[in-house]
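User: For a benchmark we're assembling, each entry needs the component sequences followed by a predicted structure for the full assembly. Here are entry 17's components. Please fill in the structure.
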Amino acid sequence: MGLANRSLVTIDDLSNAEIEALFSLADKMAVSLEKQFNLCQGKIMASLFFEPSTRTRLSFETAMHRLGGRVISAVNVGETSLAKGESVADMARVVGSYADIIVIRHPWEGAAKVVADYAGVPVINAGDGGHEHPTQTLCDLYTIKKEKKTIRGLRIALWGDLKYGRTVHSLAYALARFGATIHFRAASGLEMPDYVKRKLTTEYKGRLEEYETLDDVVKERPFPLDAIYLTPSSPHQLANIPSVSLQIELAKGVDALYVTRLQQERLNAEAEEKEMKNDYPVVDKKLLKKKEFRETVVLHPLPRVDELAYELDVDPRSMYFKQAELGVPIRMALIALLLGAKEIATPRKEESFTQPKEYALYQRETGVRCTNRQCVSAQKTEKGYIKPQFKIVSCRPLTLRCIYCDHEIFPPCIASSHWHEGRLVSKRYHSADSHMVRKIRPEHLMIFASAKDAEAHGFKPSSYAQPN
Amino acid sequence: MGLANRSLVTIDDLSNAEIEALFSLADKMAVSLEKQFNLCQGKIMASLFFEPSTRTRLSFETAMHRLGGRVISAVNVGETSLAKGESVADMARVVGSYADIIVIRHPWEGAAKVVADYAGVPVINAGDGGHEHPTQTLCDLYTIKKEKKTIRGLRIALWGDLKYGRTVHSLAYALARFGATIHFRAASGLEMPDYVKRKLTTEYKGRLEEYETLDDVVKERPFPLDAIYLTPSSPHQLANIPSVSLQIELAKGVDALYVTRLQQERLNAEAEEKEMKNDYPVVDKKLLKKKEFRETVVLHPLPRVDELAYELDVDPRSMYFKQAELGVPIRMALIALLLGAKEIATPRKEESFTQPKEYALYQRETGVRCTNRQCVSAQKTEKGYIKPQFKIVSCRPLTLRCIYCDHEIFPPCIASSHWHEGRLVSKRYHSADSHMVRKIRPEHLMIFASAKDAEAHGFKPSSYAQPN
Amino acid sequence: MGLANRSLVTIDDLSNAEIEALFSLADKMAVSLEKQFNLCQGKIMASLFFEPSTRTRLSFETAMHRLGGRVISAVNVGETSLAKGESVADMARVVGSYADIIVIRHPWEGAAKVVADYAGVPVINAGDGGHEHPTQTLCDLYTIKKEKKTIRGLRIALWGDLKYGRTVHSLAYALARFGATIHFRAASGLEMPDYVKRKLTTEYKGRLEEYETLDDVVKERPFPLDAIYLTPSSPHQLANIPSVSLQIELAKGVDALYVTRLQQERLNAEAEEKEMKNDYPVVDKKLLKKKEFRETVVLHPLPRVDELAYELDVDPRSMYFKQAELGVPIRMALIALLLGAKEIATPRKEESFTQPKEYALYQRETGVRCTNRQCVSAQKTEKGYIKPQFKIVSCRPLTLRCIYCDHEIFPPCIASSHWHEGRLVSKRYHSADSHMVRKIRPEHLMIFASAKDAEAHGFKPSSYAQPN
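Assistant: Structure for entry 17:
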């Protein structure tokens, strides 16, 4: 399947083979940036930034201009049409009737998906709240691959704000898909969220070892680890690794160090910010002198604040400016592919260790809603047309993943739409913890946000209504 | 006369024949949007938005890009050069020396006319306060015409905020000019302003029937009417229509329903907003099921808030997204014509029911000023060079229409510059209500904003100085 | 040396011959603006405005579009990436990897130099705080030259805000370089800063006569002068001019009058603003009737406020709109040259009366810092990588000029790094006022911001430590 007319909302929208083909095209374009000027003549890209981001926006706009296309641009849109109460879907339909492709950054998680659903033209997610930022991930991967020739089997450390930094979430998934081992080193209080870790282990099938800061294994390291994600691509690692062999593994050093800044704008209060800053890991000359980092390339999505010392700028291992530079050919390749101005060769056999999982979808209107306040489905202007929908990603505990923002909820009560048909007396609800969750067939499953909710729908507690 | 080098400040700047020719050109362009790419190569459009409006701006910029031209763009300019105290005229002259055509949106009513007066290049009004927004009107008309093949004789309902919605003012004039019958259904407190109604009846020669909400004729309708404008194009309607025949007329249904949102940003206080919202008419599936609406196309200038239900989006009668889409070829055609890149065929015989009226102009500096606080001529930075000017649109009562914002004033006192020449004793002023207003020849007419004002100019009250 | 790949940070970055060659190219381009459309096809200009300036930005963007190039644009960037704490250097490196040329406006003085140092592509300073705005100066000079055929020997008056108006600083230097005589007429409290006057007399070798407002020589003039800068190009003026001959000189009239507005945004308080406004010189019809102004062209960088009457707009001597218009071909020529799309003929023999002075550089880290709070080197985000550097422009008193913002500081203490080598007892510091400043060889000079500072570096006061 070609890429023309598709959208890139999350990194999972591209297969590994497609990503590799995209990289090859970017390679070709980077060689002669100026010869791509006829590829998208007459095409228009809408660049819609509801959140400030000069760097990402200019990178996309540069890419489109280098392809010969035109750009219409709306910056800080939050202050304009939103103030008039317009919905994301309406905006998408209107702009989709102007432009040939849309690039969207939005503070609401899942907004890019809504735009893609309604625009009628290819849409690229340039960051939706704390959710995803897939083109940044492409740039990150591309830079690592150019430097290290492959991703597979690499040891890659993610440092800093692993909680709010959306770039590290997408990157972690992508690294897992390409078979890298990941070392997590979070600033305290900014650890990788549970749902990301769950996705890594359940969908990409690797193994996650978590540590206390004072664990013997990790406390002596130049940097204390929170966790290590062991890719299934190195089969021996699938065995339960004793401390000793982990020591050996760690001693091999780090191939790439991905540093992120503190996402101050997403912290709640000044107090919180202050505390975070004190404990934030700093990458500098001294650190890079340690033998584990001898051949480590340093990446950073920029802008940096204090976590990355200026003295490293002249170090040949520093890749962060190159990373920004490579964003242009990557985005050129992506835009050209989505617009159908270029086609990629038939993907070779998939090398991914995971096939995208197909989960059952829960779409009933039983009052279950995403509880993420930043989710697009939770917004006043969007509720009128967005129906909550979830993937049922686990039954024990019952876990629903919002199809918009990927946040997970754990509803307490369930029922079957089948058993009670016509017979009021058998309208019973059960605890989602009970074994009933497996007895009800997916197409009959009803899920409630609370017992009260279930009762409002006319259900009475069954003997399995109490959590066990 | 061709359109090259002309400006579009109000919808009246185009004759009916020119509008129809513009529509034909838009038809041709819409067929092959991508083949227009050479028309305006090397031309530059300045897109100056002193008020937020992502949608309209992007539509214009898309149009220029599809023509192969370039765009320089200033958004939220209100916060930049205006802060330095620059006048609209200076801005117009400077930008006019950069660009080949200017698109301007400005909060001051009449600002687009000032830009057109000073820029030296064609200017398109993209909305000046609550005054006019002629390209929106062109899109509205064009959409109706494409769906219904003609405007003449159609029954078109205007709903919602008829007071602050500038798009409905321009549209009402245009519909009258093309011979449509208009049904007004205002939210309470947001009725069509008097000056618009006056213009409709005096200049476009139709007849306006106004109703109380509880009138028998209208209260049973699916929607209560405020007023109906009967076009002179259906001659029988010119007769005094008894309730019965109006009933028959109404039973014929509505060809197009034009819905507008509450212009919250122009309301004075939150309290006012709250009240308005409660009574605002809502268009939904249920309404459109009524037989009067069976073949009604639904239009809306967007953005919508709650007045138009999302459930209608899939209804084939919904035209609002198509309306936005058609804005691009309409604006392409307009830009190409004003830049002289295209010419229109010689207009056929005018089909308008009205020829633009030629009113006498009042230009004396006797202290009469426009009382509209949003008028460009009333602004501190503009007073230094803008001289108040008015059209004398009526003598009974004496009515002056500001040439900038079209608002009307009713000055109380007049005098003649002729009778008293040299003889102080005969310097007398009269009430504007008296028959003297018809005795003084237009070229001698002096008009004062108050008796005090007249006296300050050395006049004494005549025996006709009291209003009768 | 060609201009390709060079930057324009201050007007001194161009030699007189280069400026004249640039003017010739602008002349050619102005004749056929539309034929330049192929010169910069495929090139991208980044237009980065950290301070609002619609006019200048649109002028640059127009220029690039007329050359066929593309523009990526970031307006009010201050509110975006800066909020994330990014440094100017990082921003420059990233944008420099996207675009082929950068135009930067920034509130910090010296910021454009930092961008030029790091971007890796040509950079044009579009105004850095109150420091320089060299392309405005080029437009000013170009307009005068087009009207008067030459700059040499002209009498040019600078009026208004000579303190905060960065355009008049650059212009004064340029006029001096081209051999004009300058009449200063500042609004009270807004006199030309000392460092500008010092530069005029020391580097451009002219002579500055300063006056009290009530001096006989100047008080009878249509406008009271603060000072007159006599160019060395008219040799007789180098003699000490008695009042009488100055009278004669002044009677010759003014060739050009350069008016500036009050830079309200740089004033500290409302009170200050009010006071300034009362005394601000106004240029109007009445003034221009005086015989000294009979052939005076009137210039203004715009926007104007009240200092320039609208009644002058129709006067053929008014050049301010033409000045804005000529900005486009000037900027086209400049961009084309820096991008190497055009080359200038080998400069003729330099006609400048001054060769750029080569000052010794002071780069030691002895705690001496620029005291200008607007200097880029003084900003929190920039201190991490910018090392203070100064030109030693005078020894008596010891004067250091910041290489970023050109502000001057007068450090009180000095020492020699040579004399005390190894011998702690001879580590002595001296007053910068003493003759020691001339005895220490530049390469050994150590400079301290205070006696305390010197002592902190281990020096003790010498017998020359007290200022004499």
